[in-house]
Amino acid sequence: MPTETTSAREATAYCDRITHRQGERVELRASGEGPADLDVVRLHRPPDDPSWSMPCFSPVDAITAQRIRLEPHETHAGSYLTVDGLPVGPTTPVSGSAYVLPTLLASGHVQGVFALSGTGAGVAVVLDPDGGLSLSWDEAELASPVRLVEGRWHVVSWSVDPASGEFSLAHRPVRPAPHGIGRWAGSARAAGTPATGSTRLLVGAARVAAAPDASTLPGTPGRRTSFNGKIDAPVLVAAALPPGELEAATPERLRGRGPVLGAWDFSREQSSDRAVDTGPHGRHGLLVNGPARAMTGVHWKADEQNWTHATEQYSAVHFHDDDLDDARWPVAATVDLPEDLPTGIYAIRLRPSGDDDRQELVTIVVAPRGRPGPEVRTLVVLPTYTYMAYANNLGNGEKLDYAQAGLAEGEVEPHAGQQRLFAFPEIGGSVYDVHSDGSGRCYSSPRRPILNLKPDWKSGRRDAYRHLAADLYIPTWLESLGIPYDVTTDHVVNADGAAALEGYSVVLTGTHPEYISRPIIAALHAHLDTGGCLLYLGGNGFYWVTSESAEVPELVEVRRGFQGTRTWTGAAGESHHSQTGELGGLWRLRGLPPNDIVGVGFAAQGADGGAAGYRRADGALSQDAAFLFDGVESEVFGTTGYDMGGAAGDEVDRYSVPHGSAPWATVAASSLPLSKFYKLTIEDIQMSRENNGGDHMPEVRADLVVTDHAAGGFVFATGSISWVQSMAVGEFDNDVARITGNALRTALARTEK
Hints:
Elements: E1 12-15, E2 19-21, E3 25-31, E4 34-43, E5 57-59, E6 66-70, E7 80-84, E8 94-102, E9 111-118, E10 123-127, E11 133-137, E12 140-143, E13 154-161, E14 166-173, E15 184-189, E16 198-203, E17 229-237, H1 243-246, H2 251-254, E18 260-265, E19 274-277, E20 285-288, E21 292-295, E22 316-319, E23 331-336, E24 344-352, E25 360-367, E26 378-382, H3 384-389, H4 416-422, E27 443-444, E28 458-459, E29 464-465, H5 468-471, H6 473-481, E30 485-489, H7 490-496, E31 506-509, E32 515-516, H8 518-529, E33 533-536, E34 544-545, E35 547-548, E36 556-557, H9 594-598, E37 601-605, E38 614-616, E39 636-637, E40 651-654, E41 666-671, E42 679-680, E43 703-708, E44 714-717, H10 723-727, H11 729-732, H12 735-750
Parallel strand pairs: 2-25, 26-30, 26-31, 31-33, 32-34, 33-44
Antiparallel strand pairs: 1-3, 3-23, 4-5, 4-6, 4-24, 7-16, 7-20, 8-13, 8-17, 9-10, 9-16, 10-11, 11-12, 13-14, 14-15, 17-18, 17-22, 18-19, 19-20, 21-22, 24-25, 27-36, 28-29, 35-36, 37-40, 37-42, 38-39, 38-41, 41-43, 43-44
Helix pairs in contact: 7-8
């Protein structure tokens, strides 16, 4: 995939973070051509219904508009290790070795394993586009006629000797293979004696776009030389091994053959982007673009699944030619947020000068700087972990046809936003996607344009708004009720813990808080244990274990493991997070099910274009949840909505005591029967069976649940992603909005101090 610039595209931009606090400076990084007008707008709703009295967004007059000039910038995908300052002179002999496990031999482009560059002749060990290994030194080349074996560990060793002009290459499988498979050694002599003079080492790439400086780092040119696979224990020594000894030159043996220039141990500092040099010079390297860490290495014995218990067995880095943790565009403009700017969901708007019909909206969330004032008792926690998990979702991890599999009635037509993402693949990839070698993506970073973090983004599978676009209705609904509120994000709650929720009586979730960390769970429990209330306004919430990077702000990590509704399955031994060391996968399998927090847990999902309403439970008007139905006359409600036409749809949750729901909770309503396209969640199916859809399984449903807590508060759970978009119909003039309003007003009354 070639490197592309945005010169032929619409203006594109991003900020380093989604979340900013009041009074902070926002840095906008943009690519395009020509002058552009910049201002800040407050987002109110997605552009779903032109009859709304409220606009989709409104300018923020407190922030001065600017005119800036855009320039095109490249985006360099592909991860690698870079080390600078190596003491290699023009006559220094050099030998190198590493354990190498290729995962995509026929990548269609050159893949760098080792590369040395500097003032003299360059040295590179690469896989050619068809997967053959070769060593080049200046203009001389030595190519192996034997291919490496995909998915197997090899020892790859090489040497160059400026004194004699001799250079050698060898590779062999770590576990011997029959008939010489994967094994070869050879040497040649260069014409003349090329000087080395190499001061920079690359591992996992053969060249980079530019030398690093104080403000930027290099990137590989658009997958052109990036490696796909694992590399373990790269070593360089200032000696040229004789050709006969090279084949046995493992990294451990090579260290004893001459002065060590560098020996990098990837098992150390796993949560960082630093590669520790255990050699005498301490020339630590930088891992660029976020390759996967905490990966099983060549010495993994399959007797330990947690890398923190046997770090020496987790000594590999998995490089990919489509890794990207930072687009590294320069700052195009800065915006200073006023100290008194109301918290909420905003966007930096870019418009080509003189063309008001084209605009780019870069979403940011402004969170409170300190504790709330006495009049603000309601807090909306936007599920920014979920936004990051889905960021630039290409959909390449789903290896099935939804219609053919009985999960949807018709084919999916990508909408305009999705087509734009397909045309900009170098920024793509969510934790739902797989890399080009088929391995799962476990990191997602905000330091790139995120094209589906827009107020008009729709799910093509349902032709309905999702995530941020759907969550816009929640603050707008609060304003319609005249209830003061603040807005914050998962990232703030993860960082500040329970302190982020202190001073608020009621916490509201977004429509799809699927991804959550242990600190956020602890903060919510602390809120409930001190008398607070929680309104869970979504579905499929608190499902996946999620952690956040200490190195790249707001970068999230997800390891899928082997259970749950997922688009890829983790490799053996690689289910623990590199950021925290904790076991990934489902919180339910960690003993912290969503039912324990909100009273319901994931039950089913569907994408057939039809959602359902709810029916009030028998006796609900005489139970503890009767307050929900004040002013609601009909037993059936929620039969309209912007998301597939009903309040119960997309992904739905049910009440289940065996899965952690409180026995004393009240099920106030349940969804009307869902269709055959809604399938029971995988973790609830212990044996293969037919007819596990909503037309046969009573467990396939959404439940409306109220759970009282001993400290005086309660949790109100809607159990459906579609709920909020049903609330929004008629500008919140419907029974679903009344029920939610009753829950909020009751929560505020019970917690009034």
